[in-house]
Specification:
- Strand 1 and strand 2 form a beta hairpin.
- By secondary structure, the chain is mostly helical.
- It is 58% helix and 4% strand.
- The chain has a domain of 165 residues.
């Protein structure tokens, strides 16, 4: 092959012999402990840098920032909402509630009403499912007949259930005015009905459990009838709520056949007659 004058001919490498790797491409050999140690130190350093980036979020600093924003612009609804969310995450429910209510007060065009009401609903619902009411005692679904002292619900306060339902319903009512990302609007529209149905189911379940307490209080039958209405409400909102369907059948059976409550020794402590 003819080449241009003045250029030396290139040497053709022998076939079958691989080119030697460059110095910076050479990987440490397993037999080279010093090289391996250096590589491990570099990788560990990179991991620490990545971990530091993940741990940069400081909730307390965020709260302080939101407080400063409120101090500078006290009538901006979003600042109060952001502080409320941060306080709720911190566990300060009273402080969060106060900020959400202020956010509603300053949200004149109601562009944030939906998200604020949803957060208030979450606040109330979280309180509802804490404590003894966090668990529906198994006796209320007929799985246990023995009385367990301190393990049943003896009081059901309507506001505990009505408050989250009211806030969730308000979130849906103001959803069309919400100025937020489509993803967040979709989240509220899809999850709020589920929250409402769960609150009604919890309300009915707790009333059933109350009707099986060992104390004599005389409102057992009215409580079961009210529970039945709440289970039906649950099914109206969420027709696929299998537990509510089960409880509807159970409540009907209780009203029809009556039920017995046993003490811790297995003796009948109270008997409620059915309607036949």
């Amino acid at each position: 092959m003819n080449r241009n004058p003045g250029q030396p001919e290139e040497e053709t490498p022998e076939e079958g012999l691989p080119e030697e790797p460059k110095e910076d491409e050479i990987e440490p050999s397993p037999e080279d402990p010093d090289a391996l140690a250096e590589t491990e130190e570099q990788e560990a350093g990179e991991g620490e840098e990545e971990g530091d980036e993940e741990e940069t979020f400081d909730l307390e600093a965020q709260i302080e920032l939101f407080r400063q924003q409120i101090e500078e612009e006290p009538e901006v609804s979003a600042h109060h909402y952001n502080l409320g969310e941060a306080l709720m995450e911190l566990g300060d429910k009273d402080g969060a509630k106060e900020e959400f209510e202020r956010a509603l007060q300053f949200d004149a065009d109601r562009s944030l009403h939906s998200i604020i009401h949803f957060s208030l609903g979450e606040l109330y619902y979280d309180s509802l499912i804490s404590g003894i009411q966090s668990t529906v005692v198994k006796s209320s679904v007929g799985l246990h007949s023995a009385h367990k002292p301190g393990g049943s619900i003896t009081e059901v306060h309507d506001d505990d259930y009505a408050n989250p339902i009211r806030e969730y319903e308000s979130a849906l009512q103001h959803l069309s005015h919400l100025k937020a990302d489509d993803e967040f609007v979709q989240y509220i529209s899809q999850n709020t009905p589920q929250r409402i149905s769960d609150a009604y189911y919890k309300w009915g379940s707790d009333l059933l459990d109350k009707s099986r307490q060992i104390q004599l209080y005389g409102e057992e039958v009215p409580d079961v009838k009210q529970a039945l209405r709440y289970f039906r409400k649950t099914m109206e909102i969420n027709p696929h709520h299998s537990q509510a369907k089960l409880m509807i059948n159970y409540a009907k059976k209780m009203l029809r056949e009556g039920w017995q409550i046993y003490d811790e020794y297995g003796f009948v402590a109270k008997e409620i007659p059915g309607s036949g």
